[in-house]
Amino acid sequence: MNHILLELANTRHTYRKMLNLYWITILLTVILEFSIQRIQHDMSPREIIAPLALHALLLTIATGIVEWLYRYRHAQSDWLLVSTGILYASSIILMNPSIGIVPAIFIFPILTSVLSFNKQTILIAFALVLLSFGVLYGVSAPLRLTMQPVHMIGILFLYTGTTVIALSITSSGIELLDNLKHATEAKQELLVKNIIMDTLSKIDALTELYNHKTFHEYLEKLIEQNELNDLSLQLAILDIDNFKRINDTYGHWVGDIILIRVASIIKETVTPNDFVARYGGEEVAVIFTEKTLDEAYRLVEQIRHKLYVTLHPELDSKAATISIGLQEYMKGKGKEALFKGADASLYAAKRTGKNKTFVHSTPYPALNTTDLSAEKIRSSN
Fold first, then answer.
1. What is the share, in percent, of the chain residues with pLDDT greater than 70?
2. CA gap 103, 137 in Å, rounded
3. Which of 149, 165, 209, 344 shows the smallest number of beta carbons within 10 Å?
4. What DSSP string describes 54-65?
5. Which is nearest to 259 in space by CA: 312, 207, 202?
6. What are phi and psi of 203, to 5 degrees?
7. Is the dihedral of CA 222, 223, 227, 233 positive or negative?
8. Counting beta carbons within 10 angstroms of the beta carbon of residue 329, is it exposed (0 to 12), middle (13 to 18) or buried (19 or more)?
9. Which of 108, 112, 25 lies closest to 62, judged by CA?
10. Are 324 and 346 within 8 A, CB to CB?
C-alpha cells in the first residue's frame, strides 16, 4: 500500500477516534436494546437488565482488549477494528433476531475497513461479514424466521452495495492522495531547485566562497547592526602575491589550484561567525565579527603564516604568499571609508615587500615561525 496511505490509515489520531466510537456504541447499544425490548416484547426493566448487562460486559471486554493493546502495546491493527466491529454487530443481531432490519448493522465493520485504504482489507471484511451472517443465520432460529427471502436479498444487496461504495471511496482516496503526493513532490523539487539556484547565485564556483555581490549585501547588513548596537567589525582584504606571474609561468590551471588552496586555508582558520568571500580575481575579503582588532589581526596572521609554510608541488615546491590589509570599522564612517582603509593597508603591504599584514597605516612584522601569541598589536588612529 502507498506509504502515505499507510501513515494516514495508521495514525494514532484516527485510531483513537475509532476506539472512542466503539465505547460510545456500547452505551448507545444498551439504550437502544432497552427501548426495543420494552416496546417490542413489553418486558419489565428487571427482565431486561440481566441480558443487557451480559451483552454490555461482552462488548466492554472486547473493546477493553483492543484499548489495552493500543495503549500499552502500541498496536494499531485494521483487523482488530474490523473484528471488533463484527463482534459488535453479531452480538446485537443475536440480542434482537426478530427485528428484520438489525442485520443491516453488519455494514459497520465494512465501513470500518475503509480506514485501511486497502481494497484487499475491504474485500476480506466483506467476506467475514457474509460468513458471520451465515453462521448467525444457521444458529439462530428466530433470525431464520424473521429473514424472509426478500429480506435476505435486501440484506445481501446492502452488504454488497456498501462494499462497492467502500471500494469506490478507497479508489478515490488513493487517487487523490497519489495526486497530492505528486504535487507535493513537484513542490519539494521546485523548492530544492530554488534553494540550489539561490545558493549558486551566492557562491563562487571555483573557491566555493561567497561571491562579490553577496559579500556587499552581508557587509551592509553588518554595518547597520554596528551602527545600531556598537558591534565590533573588521574587514581584511587578502591578495595573493605575484599571482599574475604564477599564471604566466605555470598556467592558469595552476593559478586556480592555488586559489582553491588559499580559500581552503582561510575557511579552516576563521571562526564560524566570520564571513569569507572571493572579492576579485586573486583577492579574498574576510569580515570579522564579535572580535577585537587584536583577535582579527592574529587570525589573518595565522592565515598568512600557514600559506607561507605551505609548499605547492605545482609551483616547484615553492610557497604562495599573501599580503593583507586590515581595517576596523569606525562608527559613522560608512562602508566606503572601511574599504578605503583596508585597500590602503593592502597597498602598503604590497608596496613595502609583500607577505605581510598592515593595519590602518602601520605595518605589522611578518610572522614566519615566531609564536603568534607573543605578537603585540599596534595601531595608529
1. 87
2. 10
3. 149
4. HHHHHHHHHHHH
5. 207
6. -110, 140
7. positive
8. buried
9. 25
10. yes
> Does the pLDDT of residue 356 top 90, yes or no?
yes
| Helix, strand, or coil (residue 232) | coil
pLDDT band at 380 (very low <50, low <70, confident <90, very high): very low
Cβ–Cβ < 8 Å for 320, 307 = yes
- Residue 14: name the closest of 143, 128, 115, 101 by CA: 115
Cell of 151: 429480506
Question: Nearest 5 degrees, angle CA 376-CA 362-CA 353?
Answer: 100
Closest CA to 55 of 17, 89, 20: 89
Number of H helices, E strands in the chain: 13, 8
106 in Cβ contact with 89 (< 8 Å): yes
* Positions of E strands within the chain: 233-240, 275-278, 283-289, 311-312, 318-319, 322-328, 357-359, 362-364
* Complete DSSP assignment for 96-163: -TT-TTGGGGGHHHHHHHGGGT-HHHHHHHHHHHHHHHHHHHHH-HHHHHH--HHHHHHHHHHHHHHH
pLDDT digits (tens, 9 = 90+) for 215-257: 888 888 888 888 888 788 999 999 999 999 999 999 999 999 9
Which residue, 306, 276, 302, is CA-closest to 289?
A: 276
What cell was used for 54?
Answer: 451480559
Contact 108, 85 (CB under 8 A): yes
Residues in the chain: 381
Rounded Cα distance between 44 and 46, Å, is 5
Set of cell numbers at residue 101: 432490519
Residue 316 grid cell: 616547484
* Nearby residues of 95 by Cβ (< 8 Å), 6 or more positions away: 33, 51, 55
**Tens digits of residue pLDDT in 92-130:** 888 888 777 788 888 888 888 887 778 898 999 999 999
Residues 312, 313, 317, CA angle at the centre, nearest 5°?
70
